[in-house]
Amino acid sequence: MSGIGFFKRLLGAASHDAPEPQWLRAPEGLRVLMVDDSPTMLAVLGKHLNHEGYATLKAADGESALDIAREEQPALIFLDIVLPGINGFAVLRTLRHDPLTRDIPIVMISGNQQATEQFYVQRFGADDFIRKPFGRPEVATCIHKLVLAGRLPAREVVREIAAPPVPEEGSVPESVAGIAA
């Protein structure tokens, strides 16, 4: 992948070649905890989530993530595997054993190849995994799968139906004007 392609994918630039697929979304305002020690990754993931109408919470380490998850009860957590202090696997285990947080969907994220392999060997109950770098399509697809699986509620689709124009008082609508003449 070229350098420009990498950044386009990372920032979620839309492709002009294909129409954007339609994904199921979780309700707007849904709180999502993002856990990553990289301010850049937090900003990029936050941009993707905010674009879809979700409210984001941030943690830069495992200890903060545990505190925020217990206090704020987010509906979804994106959790990096490689973190300072306790790693993402230990955070995942702790969250799964805590009655307050055990049912929160958790998506593990990592760009570290060794951590990625370790994830598949030691899957501790994560709902999904996204490899870094990722873009908006990967995030949307992940949320789509969680909605389909019933792990997140679905956003209601509002279908706007155009109402016929209301005629001004005293005027005769065009559709009736020919009949009246």
Structural commentary:
The protein is an alpha/beta fold and 181 residues long. The protein has a single domain (27-158), classed as Response regulator (Rossmann fold), CATH 3.40.50.2300. The chain has helices spanning 3-11, 39-51, 62-72, 88-97, 113-121, 136-148, 174-180; strands at 31-35, 55-59, 76-80, 106-110, 128-131. Strands 2-1-3-4-5 form a 5-stranded parallel beta sheet, with helices on both faces. β1, α2 and β2 form a beta-alpha-beta unit. The longest helix has 13 residues, at 39-51. The protein starts with a helix and ends with a helix. Residues 14-20 have low confidence and may be disordered.
Summarize the SSE layout with pairings.
Blueprint: H1 3-11, E1 31-35, H2 39-51, E2 55-59, H3 62-72, E3 76-80, H4 88-97, E4 106-110, H5 113-121, E5 128-131, H6 136-148, H7 174-180
